[in-house]
Structure formats: C-alpha cells, structure tokens
Input
Amino acid sequence: QVLMPFATVDYRPFWVGIGQLGFYLWVIVVISFYIRPIIGQKTWRALHYASFALYLMGLFHGLFSGTDSTAGWAVNYYWISFGSLLFLLFVRVVGATIEKLFPANRPAPVQKITQ
Output
C-alpha cells in the first residue's frame, strides 16, 4: 500500500494516492535534470512547468491526508509556501509582460577588432 498509488484502504485513499502519484512524478522531474541533453530543451521545460501541478498535488495531499494539517506550524507552512508561489508566479508573468510591451534598449554587442 505504501508504494502503490490509490491502494490504501484504511486512511483517505484518494488523497494518499494523490501524494504518492505526485512523488513519483516528482522523481521524473528530478531525473530530467540529468538527462536534459538527451530529452531536449522543450521536453525539459514542459516537465518543469508540470512542477506547478506537482506542488498542488503535494499541497492537497498534506492538507487532506496529513495528520498534522491543523497544527499551527503546518498551517503556516501551507500559507507561506502557497503565498510565495503565487507571488513569484505573479512577478514572473508581470515581468515577462512588461518586457514584451516595453523592450529594453540594449546596446549592440561589442565586436572584437582583429588585425
């Protein structure tokens, strides 16, 4: 039951299974760091965008099947981690939007003069 997602019958099988599945998918993301030249940049980037879904899977697993979910430290952890994720995502999206609307005037690269 520990290794097979959704096989737990005694304690909240759906949320425990979500956590197990999220863990296995997380392992794939970690391995992708090491095989990035083999799988290519596009595949690697797509896997890493999936990390947002993996985070949510882990968060829901903790919230709905965690035995310490009501403890003060756990509630703080959930709020701080989720809040920082939303904030940084917002900064990233807004920054990219501003960059597209107002491209920076970058000087031309310096060319070396060879003799």
